[in-house]
# Entry
Amino acid sequence: MDVTGNEEGSDCVTSVLFDRLWVTLCDAFGCSAAAALLRRSHRRALKRCPALAGAIVERAGSTYRYTVPESWKSASSDSAGAFRVWLEELIPFLVELTGAVVVRRLAALPEFQRCPMIPSAFTPAKDTE
Amino acid sequence: MTVPDRLSRVIGALHEIARTLESGEGFAARILRALELLRDVLPCDRCAFFEASTNGKQDLIVTPAPSSAQRARLDVKLKSLFRLITEDEEPAGDASAAEATTTVHAHLAVPVIGMDLTIGVLFIEADSDEPLGEESLRVMSLVAAHLGGYLVTLRALQKEARTAAALARANEFQQLLVGRVSHELRNPVTAIRNGAAIVLRRTTDEANLKTLGLMQSCAERCARVIADLVDVTRDRVMGGVVVRRRHMNLADVVIRVVDEYRLSHPDRAIHFDDSPEPLAGEWDPDRLSQVFSNLLSNAVTHSRRGADVRVSMRREGAQAQVSVHNEGPGIAADLLPEIFDPFKQGRSNAATGLGLGLYIVKQIVDATGGAVGVRSTDQDGTTFTVMLPLGS
# Structure
C-alpha cells in the first residue's frame, strides 16, 4: 500500500493518533468489533514489528480498553514507525469490509491530516449517502 | 424523505429488531426478520448474516431469498470475510488505495462479536453504483452488537441445556449402576454370611473359628455397605426418603433394635433406659428401626472394645428423645459439623463402611419431621440424640 507522509511534525504523538483511531473504530463498528479488528491486524503487524508487543487491546470485564507503550506518549519516529506498520495491516482490512468509508473518515481527522499516515488516496473525504 | 422522517424510520426499525430478538424460539426466522427490517431502512438490495458456530457449523441467512448462484457467491464472499476477521487471511485483492477509491464498493461488512468471540459477519450489498456510507455502517453496527448479544445468550442457554441433559443422563446411569450392582451382590453376600454362621456354630477348631469369625464379620460389613447403597439409591430415585407413617409406640422399635444388637454383639454391654411414660407418634417403624440400628452400629463400631453403650428414651416437651451414647474416643471437632454428610467417617482409622449410615439417619429423621444432633468429646464420649414429634 502506498502510504505517504514521512514528514510528520513534532506534534505527532502516536498515543494521540492511536486514541483517535480507537474512538473512530468504536464509533463505526462498536468497541467489541473494533477490538477484534485491531487485534487481528496487530497479530499480523507484530510479525514485522516486534516493538508493537507493548500495544494491547483487551476486554476488561464488560468493556474494552487499550494500552500503548510509554514511548508512544511523546513524539518519536520509532513509535510512529511501529504505528505505521500496524496501520499498513489494518487499512486493507478496513477497505475490504467497508470500502473507503472508515478509512476516509480517519484521513479526515485533523490529527491524521497533521501527521499523514493514511494513504493519500483516501484524504479527500467525500462520502455520499 | 426528510431527515427527521428518515431518523424516525431507522429508530422504528431498530426498536422492532430489538423486539424480534427478545426470544430464542425460532431464532433463524427471527434473525431473518431482523435482516428484513434492516434492509428496509438501508439503501441496499441484499442483507445477509453469516454465522459460524463453535462446533464448526456454518449458516448463511439472506434476504430477499437469493437465487442459488447469488447464494453461492454470497457464501464464498462472507466465508472469506469471516476468515479475514478471525484468521490471518490476506485481504482479497482490492487492498490497494487506488483500487479502493476508484472501484465501487457497494457493500459493507461488520463483524458480529459476542463475549469477545467473533460469531459471524453482518453484510449488506447494493446493486447501484452509489457507495454505501457511514450512516449505514453505524446502523449496521448497532444491529450487529444486538445480534452478537442475542446469539451469545442463545449459545449459553443451549450449552446449559446440553450440560443439564448430560448430567441427568450420567446421574441416572450412576443410580441404575449402583442399584443394580448392589442388588446383585446382596444375595451372594447374605449366603456367605449365613453359611459362615452355620459352619461357625459346628466348628471347634481354634484356627478355623478365627478364620470363620473373620469371614462372618467381613460379610456383615459387606451386607451393611450394600444395604446403605441400596437405600440411598432408592431414595434418590424416589426423589427423597419415603416415610410410611402409622401410629406406633417408640419403645417397641427401640427395644427390638437393642435386643438384636445384644444378640449379635454378646461381648458388649448395651444398656437401655426406657421412658417413664409411653411415647407414641405417627412414624414409620421400618425407617426408625434403620435409624436406631445405624446409630447402634456406629456406637458399637466406634467405641473401645468392651466399652458400654447406652440407649435412653424420654419425653422432652412435645417430642420424644432417643439418645445413643458410647464412651470415647470422641469424634474430631473439625469433623462434627459434617458428620451427617455422605461419605464422611468420624475416624478414618475405624472406617467400616462407605460413610452413608449417619447420612441415612439424618435423611430419615428429617423426612419424619424430627431432628438429629451429636455431642462428642474424648472425655465424655459420643452421644447422638434423635428428636421426634409426638402424636397428639
